[in-house]
Amino acid sequence: MRIHKAVVLLGLAAIFVWGIAASDEPIKVGVVDLDQALISTDEGKKASDEIQRKQKEAEAQVQPLVEKYKALEEEIKSKKFSPGLTVTGPKGSVFVPINKAVNGRWLLASKDRAEKMGLKDGMLVDVRVGADSDWATTFHKVLVIIEGEDRWALYLDPDAASAASVKPGDWAQVLLP
User: Fold this and answer.
1) Which pLDDT value is given to residue 12?
2) In the chain, which ranges are E strands?
3) Average pLDDT per run of 10 along the chain, which is 177 residues long?
4) Nearest to 139 by CA among 163, 115, 170, 168
5) Distances (CA, A) of 64 to 52, 54, 70, 75, 156
6) Rounded to a whole number, what is the distance in angstroms from the first to the last CA of the chain?
7) pLDDT at 2
8) What does DSSP say about strands 105-109 and 152-156: parallel, antiparallel, or unpaired?
9) For 40-104, where are the alpha helices, taking DSSP H only?
10) CA distance 57 to 63
11) Separation of alpha carbons 142 and 123, rounded Å
């Protein structure tokens, strides 16, 4: 019963407050232009001038970097990079271009050697490494690339070679399909 009376009293109080608050006067809304308000005082003008000066300084520092970036971007777009590898030894270095997609393992063969083995450019073969040990590993889908003269080499990415315990100079066996 007490709760019922309290709810009724609370409802009547809410209606009373709402009735008093309602009036016929319209609500006045003001719009303030912050930039205009800021420069209306001497301190605001100084602050605005300081902000504009610092903005111009920052833009002047960034602009050469933006121009340099755009120039480098254009230079990169104009160049054609060919994939390949650079072999460096005691007598210098040689860049071996490879104009084919590389999957991390490929067999590079000269035309003569490829013909003797029955290999074709772009063909996929299996290659077994470590055949004379207990740790023999077979790499599947090794891409055959035919180019150059007197070439016969198996290229493996470092992770694959390490996992198979393959070192430069080890023997490999090409398994033809």
Assistant:
1) 62
2) 84-89, 92-97, 105-109, 124-129, 137-146, 152-156, 172-175
3) 64 61 60 71 83 90 88 74 74 73 76 89 89 80 85 84 84 84
4) 163
5) 19, 17, 10, 16, 43
6) 94
7) 59
8) antiparallel
9) 42-78
10) 10
11) 8
